[in-house]
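FAQ
Q: What does a multi-component entry look like?
A: The components come first, one per line:
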Amino acid sequence: MIAQLWQYVLAGVAAGAIYALIAAGFVLIYQVTGLINFAQGEFAMIGAMTASALATGGMPVLEAAGIAVLAAAVTGALCYVLAIRPARASTGVTLIFITLGLDVALRGLGLLVWGTNPLSLPAFSGGASVNIFGGVLSPQSIWVLVTDLLVFAALYVFFRHTHAGTAVRAAVANPPIASTFGIPLRTFAFWSFVAAAAIGGLGGVVVAPITSATYDMGLTLGLAGFVAAVLGGLDSLPGALVGGFVLGIVEKLAGGLISTGWEQGVGFLILVLVLVLRPQGLLGRAVRRA
Amino acid sequence: MSTVARTISVATLDVRAVTVRFGGVVAVDDVTFTAQTGEVLGVMGPNGAGKTTLFNVISGVQRPTAGEVSLSGTRLTGRSVEDVAALGVTRTFQTPVMFWGLTVRESVEVALAAHAFGGTYPPAPWRELLRCGFAAPGRRRESALLRDHADAILAGAGIAAMAGRPTESLAFGEERLLEMARALAVSPTILLLDEPLSGLNPDEIEAVLASIRAARASGVAVLLVEHAVGELLAVADRVVVLDHGRKIAEGTPQAVAADPLVIDAYIGDELE
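Then the predicted structure of the entire assembly, as tokens:
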């Protein structure tokens, strides 16, 4: 029984690692622009589909992965320039509807370009599963965890140890005052979309060998990432990491112990509970005086 | 951001016939004055005299109903708050505005760095990201210089000891001192201080007054709105007095304090 539980936990960690990457995109864009980008999951879809299609065409996996991340980043840049920036004078609700529209549009684009058939991507490396205290993780899951580690470490270094990162934090803390100090909010908004899309794309690439890639994978990934971000705290990158893993583990435990039907539903139960009991999330900050 | 060159040496802030109406209320009524770099201009008046509204007009927050503000011939009225700031007009607020999540030193560094790079800051975040963590002597030196500069500013403001503290942990008076230091970090031409002494203890008041005098000595034009009339008259070179939006007196602190119109306006308010 304990061994079984442990295996669920490990499976949850593997799933949560992806959620954390998607959640990081939600948090980045939310912090910098105050916007919840519901198209976030589609960046993962673009990454996964591009890499899978290229690899199926014979390109080496790492090369295909690089191009896929680039494609996702460019998609993010275009989303900001073509859809968000022209409407920046609008209210929050309008912008949220725009991102919902982007979500549908990108999924439609995926359908047009790649069709409905799932595409597969070879695992990054062969080898046997890794045994951890009696539970197993696939080699590809290790790749996902390493990706998490690298992405969050890079974000930490950027925000804590570069002047640009400090400037972004100042812009997040008080946009109007930061802009009077010459901090360019619009430039930061642009780069937040690019970074969120690249991270999402990378998430799609590393998960594709596990789940395979389909044009509609962005919907479930996006929702899971959103739940993870809200759970961790929409304004907290460490929260995204924690939220992702907690969601993944709870999902797999619910799926294993109750029934697999619960795996998806439990996320929304968590979402409702968090919004009722602790709206700022696990690591987020409560609203404070401006 | 504006491409207009920053005026660093001698500059004149020119407030010409500025009127602000909110519906039927006239908050500022045909006010004209100038301020030169290297002087402290006190702006006083009873509550509701229009002092903060005047600051809002100068800093670009509030568009005047009539009249205009210019800085050495460059029109400020009609520009965005950001552009006015980029032209060298910096302000502090009655309630200090902090960058939560940054430390005290970072708050000053970010102002210094943004100012140093002008409106194009940061020049290349990805390059900085790639270089940090590696032994990049140029960058290290740059960072060390920025840090030293920030520490010097903090020392000047009398808050060197709290450089590493998060801004969330500051008491009200400390926030005020930091806001002042941060404002000076951008080497403003015009510094608008909105009641910088309120809520401070005597030591903090001394620190702010010292910063004001240092700013004046370095060639800043300081506009000072302050309810503590005694301190205002002591530090100001000239004083403009507003009452119900109108300028009722202008001159040296001695002349203004002796002006019957001013004394009259302050009856009910205390004039020390």
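Q: Is there any commentary attached?
A: Sometimes. For this entry: The CA atoms of residues 4 and 218 of chain A lie 30 Å apart.
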